Amino acid sequence: MHQLTLAEIARGLADKKFSSEELTKVLLARIAQLDPQLNSFISLTEDLALQQAKAADVRRANGESGALLGAPIAHKDLFCTLGIRTSCGSKMLDNFKAPYDATVVAKLAAAGAVTLGKTNMDEFAMGSANESSYYGAVKNPWNLEHVPGGSSGGSAAAVAARLLPAATATDTGGSIRQPAAFTNLTGLKPTYGRVSRWGMIAYASSLDQGGPLARTAEDCAILLQGMAGFDPKDSTSIDEPVPDYSASLNGSLQGLRIGVPKEYFSAGLDPRIAELIHNSVKELEKLGAVVKEISLPNMQHAIPAYYVIAPAEASSNLSRFDGVRFGYRCENPKDLTDLYKRSRGEGFGPEVQRRIMVGAYALSAGYYDAYYLKAQKIRRLVKNDFMAAFNEVDIILGPTTPNPAWKLGAKNSDPVAAYLEDVYTITANLAGLPGLSMPAGFVDGLPVGVQLLAPYFQEGRLLNVAHQYQLNTDWHTRTPTGF
Ligand code: GLN
Q: Which residues are annotated as active site (predicted)?
């Protein structure tokens, strides 16, 4: 039963082959048995899950239907969940029980999804390896000595290991797409403003966006349908109608114009990944797509711009964790300054402290123009490159990451080496565009992802291309040995 996708689960539940309660029990037992190897969960919510599963079974018995009604999922541990620990992977929030549900959590619960637990993540979503979590590193089910990617590494490892069919995640600079690539999943970062950020603990507010991680594009469509939509509680949420994503999956790719940026195939890209990306292009050409070389000339400036803007916003967002209102408080503070200093010094891990310092520096008087303002100007150039490219093509295709998943600990002493791995994903966040990563093959037994980018609000186009690709390839069906 654990091999079923969301789409198959919906059919099985509708046909009364099994109940949501039975399925939930099977998956909870599987998590108890296998997750000690992976560390993909921070909290399990067995009681809530069983209660939600029973309620979903009653709703179905009363004639209700819906693709998510009775479907087991998990939430990245930065989505606030009423009365349940919401840690953001940090000691700072280890004792924090959210007083309300995030909009995404509330919407999915209303659709009948069953929450199995809260997944592990890099501390405050800062990282690409899921090694900065206060709760320990997550392992990649494809090779337990390698990282699963980050920051949504817990959601990715759990879904890849078939502990559950799908999970929520967030992407500030690649944290849905990069772990999807590292664990052979399909992950979608929606257009900025498509999914509500209300109750999603902020890292960098102008870049953060929630989205689905699943095994197939078909399942991403189902989960995104439950997450997307206007939310008056989030001032950056956009009031655009949500299309029927599942209905968009079956469009023909005849004449689809695919742009492949020449800058993507530079020296930094593993040549074996480049070959797999070219193979995926050939596959899409067979389905009728037309390929064209394009250029994104400002791409080289994206990493430095991102690593000014994201820490700057983080330094401001994380100022609320002061030991006074909620979260960790140091023992026996001497005075107020000591309370602030020690609560923050003891509550935040080294990567979070590094980013707060970099961000505060970039925003300080005298440096603001040189760093923050400059980075914002680069951000506009990156966006303009995409706007020009989308005048010529319908989607942009390339690698999701320059290398496959690295070994645990391999980049711990050199944070910049990890930042450089974000080169293909961060531009979509800077521009606010939707992006998807899907399985495209293997290098040394480790999965490789191909990334698709589309114009604003064209999530349906991304899901359509990915679904057609998945009907004609079987990379996404491969299962890691031992799971
Ligand atoms: N790796 C990037 C960072 O560390 C992106 C993380 C994310 O998308 N949350 O900032």
A: 76 (charge relay system), 151 (charge relay system), 175 (acyl-ester intermediate)
Q: 355 pairs with which residues across the strands?
A: none
How far does residue 462's CA lie from ligand 1's centre (Å)?
Answer: 22
Domain membership flag for residue 219: yes
Positive/negative CA dihedral, 12, 17, 23, 29: negative
Cα separation, 282 vs 475, in Å, equals: 15
Query: Is 327 contained in some domain?
Result: no
Each residue's pLDDT tens digit, 121-155 = 999 999 999 999 999 999 999 999 999 999 999 99
Task: Determine the pLDDT at residue 399.
Answer: 98
What is the per-residue pLDDT for 72? 98
Residue 167, strand partner residues: 74, 213
For residue 33, give both structure tokens: 């048995």
Digit-coded pLDDT (tens) for 223-272: 999 999 999 999 999 999 999 999 999 999 999 999 999 999 987 999 99
Q: Which of 206, 169, 249, 188 is nearest to 454 (CA)?
A: 188
Compute φ and ψ for 318, nearest 5 degrees. Answer: -85, 0
Find the domain containing 106 and state its range: 6-253+438-477
Q: Tally the domains of the chain.
A: 1
349-395: pLDDT as tens digits: 999 999 999 999 999 989 999 999 999 999 999 999 999 999 999 99
Nearest to 190 by CA among 475, 476, 429: 429
In angstroms, how far is the first alpha carbon of the chain from the final one?
13
What does the buried/exposed string (b/e) look like for 347-377 if buried means 16 or more CB atoms within 10 Å of the residue's CB?
bbbebbeebbebbbbbbeeeeeeebbebbee
Task: Read off the CATH number of the domain in which 226 is found.
Answer: 3.90.1300.10
Residue to substitute in 123, 128, 189, 313 for testing ligand 1 pocket (most ligand atoms within 8 angstroms of CB): 128
Name the average pLDDT for the chain.
Answer: 97
Q: What is the pLDDT of residues 451-472, one digit of tens each?
A: 999 999 999 999 999 999 999 9
pLDDT of residue 264: 96
Residue 258 one-letter amino acid: I
CA–CA separation, 399 and 27 (whole Å): 32
Could you tell me if residue 428 is inside a domain?
A: no
On whether residue 311 sits in a domain, the answer given is no
* Closest residue to atom 5 of ligand 1, CA basis: 173
For residue 396, what are the β-bridge partners? 259, 453
What are the residue numbers of the active site?
76, 151, 175
Q: Which tokens is 268 given?
A: 């930094």
Mean pLDDT of 410-416: 90
Task: Return the ligand 1 atom nearest residue 307 CA.
Answer: 10
3-state secondary structure of 76: strand
